[in-house]
Write a structure and sequence with these properties.
Layout (H helix, E strand, L loop, with lengths): L2 H5 L3 E5 L4 H12 L3 E6 L2 H11 L6 E5 L5 H15 L4 E4 L14 H29 L2 E7 L10 H20 L6 E7 L9 E3 L5 E3 L11 H14 L3 E3 L2 H12 L1 H14 L2
Parallel strand pairs: 1-2, 1-4, 2-3, 4-5, 5-6, 6-9
Antiparallel strand pairs: 7-8
Helix pairs in contact: 2-7, 4-5, 5-6, 8-9
Length: 269
């Protein structure tokens, strides 16, 4: 079964769908014949994406809201059901990043990142579970390389992304006697849009530094791997060579891994 066959006629709900990987996921899913719902904080951005996609009104739904607000997620699910009649796939893509040591980063910045990346995945999932159970649906949690190990100066991001593993693992067991697929993917470095921002320690939104091209996947490559993972019902996928190296090295050579990280951290100070 190819992607077109699998996604044709399915309803795919994507959080954080107004830009980046989320936007690419929506674009690909629509091209495979799915109906798509995207959510984000800013209505104007969602409207721009909807206009850019230029698809039938019957095939797309946009919803502006806060994924950390459970009532907002309930409203989103109701809108999807009212328009499409079902939700087949939920992709928890919404997330924020921040940098700064635990000592330096402002508490409110830390809390914002943790709340968005954890509750912003738990609450949409909780709201969707009864619907997904009815259609033998799928839910995918989007983590990253930072979800494989604690990264110095990125502890808020690492904490929140590592937590998704625990959430996915628990949910998978809870839904074992249903036909709902639960998965988690560890996304590698992916090209960012120029408008993508990260939080500085004092809460200022600044541009994310450009990563080396040889380590960076395109948004289309990353999104397509995620959609393939859902189709294949593969629980855990590490998308990058670097991520696989981090996981292997951490398991087999934990002391060496810690030494390399300390050395790298010192070199940046």
């Amino acid at each position: 079964m190819n992607l077109n066959t699998f996604y044709n006629g399915k309803v795919v709900l994507i959080t954080g769908g107004s830009m980046g990987i989320g936007k690419e996921l929506a674009k690909l899913a629509l091209s495979y014949g799915a109906k798509v719902a995207i959510t984000g904080r800013t209505l104007s951005k969602l409207e721009f994406v909807k206009k850019e996609f230029n698809v039938s009104e019957q095939n797309i739904l946009i919803h502006a809201g806060d994924v950390t607000d459970y009532k907002n997620n309930q409203e989103l699910v109701k809108k999807c059901i009212d328009k499409f009649g079902k939700i087949d796939v939920l992709i928890n893509n919404a997330g924020l990043s921040a940098f700064g040591s635990i000592e330096d980063i402002k508490p409110e910045v830390y809390k914002t990142v943790v709340d968005t990346n954890i509750y912003g995945s738990v609450f949409p999932t909780k709201a969707c579970i009864p619907i997904l159970k009815k259609v033998n649906g799928s839910v995918l949690f989007v983590s990253s390389i930072a979800g494989l190990t604690g990264l110095p100066d990125y502890s808020a991001y690492s904490l929140s992304k590592m937590s998704l593993r625990a959430i996915a693992h628990a949910l998978r067991i809870e839904l074992k006697n249903t036909n709902v697929f639960v998965g988690i993917c560890y996304v590698g470095f992916t090209e960012n849009e120029i408008t993508k921002k990260t939080y500085s320690p004092n809460g200022e939104l600044i541009a994310i530094p450009k990563r080396p091209s040889f380590l960076t996947a395109t948004r289309e490559q990353t999104a397509k791997k995620m959609l393939k993972q859902i189709k294949r019902k593969k629980y855990s996928v590490n998308q990058s060579i670097l991520g696989n190296l981090v996981m292997f090295q951490g398991k087999v050579f934990p002391k060496l891994t810690a030494w390399i990280m300390r050395l790298n951290y010192k070199s940046k100070k």
